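Hey, resending since the last one bounced:
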Amino acid sequence: MILDEKLSLERQRTAWIVLIASFTVFTLICISTPVLVNAYLQNATRPLAVVVQANQGTVGIDDETGGRRAIIVGDAGQGVTAGEHVLTGNTATALVSVRPPESDHLLALFQLYSNTDLHLQEAEMPRFAMSGHNRSLVVRLDNGRIRVHVNKDETRPLTVLLQTPHGELALAEPGQYAVVVTPEDTQVTVQSGQVDIAAAGEGLRLPAGARARIPAGSPPEGPLGTERNLITNGNFDRSREQWILNPWIVELAAQPEGQVRTLTVGGDPRLNITRQGVGHAEVSLRQAINQDVSELTSLRLLLTFRVLNETLGVCGVKGSECPLFVRVNYVDEGGGSSTWQQGFYATGEVDPNLTPDSCTTCAMVQGPHIRVPMQQDYFFEIADFRGELARHGRLPPRYIESIVLVFSGHGFEVEVDDIALLAEE
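The structure tokens again:
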């Protein structure tokens, strides 16, 4: 009798243990399943589309196994993935664009100058729209020089972390940034936006219009004196504000003028000039600068654009009909007024008798027209404007009067992304 009671108690105890354990497991499953599902929905990622195009020369892409691919000017862009390096040699420059997969919305654009090694470490975005995380881009600049343009995105911002041998740069806001890495230091200039710098256990927040330096093994130094942009609204994010639009000049009375618009292309504001017709037509935009530059230590001109259409070969029979000219009107140290210009084209071959490589009727300081890839972003720089004039046997500038963008030809379409005239005190 006593044995039966003991067995009954054991069975009851075992039943209760099984019941409680089952309820506990059921409760854990009920709690953990939505937690795990939510964690997956929040943290699952997919790669951003990172594409490299050659701007000048031959650009190399090294993968993690030591293999190398090459891109030349005019080639279609090639995608790069985490772990790959983008390399430019002595005569090469490159463009690296970052977009969401299967989208033309531009999140960031990197301009790589010569002798630069950029290592892509991470480029990800949330897989699901419900995720609260930002898009993330992590790159390492081991040496060389880059210019970074981060676009504004209200729906899901891009967080950019730029690592160098000397520290880390968190590009905290949309804007434009320039970074130079040498064995001795890293230098960063904020043209617009804001950057958080971390090095040697210390931090520095650098605002727009400032520069900082990270010496090897030392904390960041700054804010330091920096370049200032003499051009206002050079990225056209305020449409044509500060720019004067001159009237169209059309050779044939029965032919149409073109269109001057500011468009948003992949989330990036651009000046768009389009004309279709027979005979010569041109239009220009001018901005007054009116700045004394005699005491500046440097003066740089930067321009990013693309030619989408051009019906004339090179720049016409007199070299005077480039789809894009950039001109700087200035007064030299001798008091004489002069104009420097550079022309760009995308189609045709130079023939001195039919399509010359410079304007034969322009009384200006000029070099040969530059051929650029059709329908591809191209960036151009005069790193030393004084040196450019000296190369042509001209006196240095004392006063910059204005900058002019001229669009000409028969049928043409050009988009200007950004123009800057950077002066350093």
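The two ends are 105 Å apart (CA to CA).

Sorry for the duplicate.
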